[in-house]
């Protein structure tokens, strides 16, 4: 069998640009789909796929996934960046999709079968004040959620116009609030998405005090600092949150502040999650080997795809670290399916992040995994079990724009990691 074409498709059914790769073969009707979504730079990923991986891979045997992954990985010489990793991921996931279709099995069956029926998920609750957050937590609890992430004003506490957490996904959905806010200040020489780290840091322990006082300790609660605080303030928050028994506290530091994880581990028993920003093995290996984190949170396409992710899950297993793959609105349903198949087959699965999958996503991606009773469920179709309706995808063309929410600034104008 031979690869005949590798091409990228961009679509934005929920207003967030997704990048998918389609690998076509010389077997009639046999193709694979993979996620390559880097929503801040989608056209760069698409170009890497179409200009470089397509000519590199045409004529190759799609069965040799490991060899093709390593060839794509070193073919650019310089490697381990988000653009090329996402391009490689799109092909890699598509090759696993093809292998599943040929075997007549879901991908999770190809890597050892199920360790569990479905993957426990966590939902995103947000709000302008702790009462609104609590209302949204309760809404998710009533829908059967077992775990809810609580944010108070998106990331860094900056967004004032929070939408209902259960609103249908759109660019205004709560998890997108840090994207929906736009530039708050055009007046200064430093336009940006301003927030007050100290006010944010002081607001979070009372938020969890409020939610725990009303709901008790059965519901798993999570929080994402999103690299928004100075390291010592993040450590202070981790310590202050210990009484509220978080399932995990995420992105406590920026990836390049790795030394601070050792300080944190000595001072707090709050479980730590990290990884969505990781693209290089050098970033996660020390965190796992020294057990400085409890959950790995990689964005599977940003680290190069399903092949490296399943190896990362196995590495984590030997160090007692569990998985919590990144699953926001800027992961396509193909990527959510890849998360899920790894969740089902990994003994050290922890929890799975998901979004409110809206109707347009199901229209463009038939077979999108089903959210039911606090869990994410795979269908039993071969491969990822998710298809791409290209005509429907074309109805939602990407809208290139300057990314505003990552222009995050402190009150004095200091640009801070977003
Ligand atoms: C999360 C992440 C996302 C990112 C987004 C960046 O925990 O889901 O922090 O919300 O901010 O994926 O584009
Ligand atoms: Mg995060």
List keywords for this structure.
15 strands; binds magnesium ion; three-stranded antiparallel sheet; binds D-gluconic acid; ten-stranded mixed sheet; 418 residues; alpha/beta; 14 helices; single chain
Brief description of this entry?
The protein is an alpha/beta fold and 418 residues long. The protein is 37% helix and 14% strand. The strands form 3 sheets. Strands 4, 5, 7, 8, 9, 10, 11, 12, 13 and 14 form a 10-stranded mixed sheet that branches. It has a 3-stranded antiparallel sheet with strand order 1-2-3. Strands 6-15 form a two-stranded parallel sheet.
Q: Can you give a write-up of this model?
A:
This protein is an alpha/beta fold and 418 residues long. It has 14 helices and 15 strands. Strands 4, 5, 7, 8, 9, 10, 11, 12, 13 and 14 form a ten-stranded mixed beta sheet that branches. A three-stranded antiparallel beta sheet has the order 1-2-3. Helix 5 links the parallel strand 4 and strand 5. About 5% of the residues have low confidence.
Distance between the termini: 45 Å
List the helices and strands in order. Answer: EEEHHHHEHEHEHEHEHEHEHEHEHEEHE
Shape: globular
In total, how many beta strands?
A: 15
How confident overall, as mean pLDDT? Answer: 93
Q: Spell out which ligands are present.
A: D-gluconic acid, magnesium ion
Radius of gyration: 21 Å
Structural class per helix/strand content? alpha/beta
In terms of DSSP E residues, the strand content is: 5-15%
Largest sheet descriptor = 10 strands, mixed
Question: Which regions are unreliable across 5 or more consecutive residues at pLDDT < 50?
Answer: 160-181
The number of helices is 14
Helix fraction by DSSP (H/I, runs of at least 4): 25-40%
């Amino acid at each position: 069998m031979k690869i005949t074409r590798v091409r990228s498709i961009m679509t934005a059914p929920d207003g967030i640009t997704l990048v998918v790769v389609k690998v076509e073969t010389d077997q009639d009707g046999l193709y694979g789909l993979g996620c390559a979504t880097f929503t801040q730079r989608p056209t760069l990923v698409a170009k890497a796929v179409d200009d470089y991986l397509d000519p590199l891979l045409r004529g190759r045997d799609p069965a040799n996934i490991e060899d093709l992954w390593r060839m794509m990985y070193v073919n650019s010489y310089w490697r381990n960046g988000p653009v090329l990793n996402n391009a490689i991921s799109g092909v890699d996931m598509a090759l696993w999709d093809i292998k599943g279709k040929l075997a007549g099995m879901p991908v999770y069956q190809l890597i050892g079968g199920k360790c569990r029926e479905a993957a426990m998920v966590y939902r995103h609750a947000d709000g302008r004040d702790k009462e609104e957050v609590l209302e949204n937590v309760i809404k998710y609890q009533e829908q059967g959620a077992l775990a809810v992430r609580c944010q108070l004003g998106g990331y860094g506490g900056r967004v004032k116009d929070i939408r209902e957490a259960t609103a249908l996904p759109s660019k205004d959905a709560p998890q997108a609030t840090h994207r929906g806010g736009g530039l708050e200040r055009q007046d200064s020489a430093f336009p940006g998405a301003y927030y007050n780290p100290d006010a944010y840091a002081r607001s979070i322990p009372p938020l969890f005090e409020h939610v725990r006082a009303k709901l008790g300790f059965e519901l798993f609660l999570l929080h994402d600092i999103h690299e928004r605080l100075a390291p010592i303030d993040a450590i202070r928050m981790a310590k202050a949150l210990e009484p509220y028994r978080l399932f995990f506290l995420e992105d406590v530091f920026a990836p390049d502040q790795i030394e601070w994880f050792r300080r944190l581990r000595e001072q707090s028993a709050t479980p730590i999650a990290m990884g969505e920003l990781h693209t290089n093995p050098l970033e996660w290996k020390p965190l796992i080997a020294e057990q400085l984190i409890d959950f790995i949170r990689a964005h599977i396409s940003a680290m190069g795809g399903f092949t490296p992710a399943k190896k990362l899950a196995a590495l984590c297993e030997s160090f007692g670290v569990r998985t919590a793959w990144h699953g926001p609105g800027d992961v396509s349903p193909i990527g959510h399916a890849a998360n899920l198949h790894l969740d089902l087959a990994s003994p050290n699965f922890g929890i799975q992040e998901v979004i409110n999958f809206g109707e347009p996503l199901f229209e463009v991606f038939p077979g999108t995994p089903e959210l039911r009773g606090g869990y994410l469920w795979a269908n039993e179709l071969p491969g990822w079990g998710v298809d791409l309706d290209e005509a429907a995808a074309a109805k939602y063309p990407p809208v290139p724009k300057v990314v505003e929410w990552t222009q995050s600034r402190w009150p004095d104008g200091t640009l801070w990691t977003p």
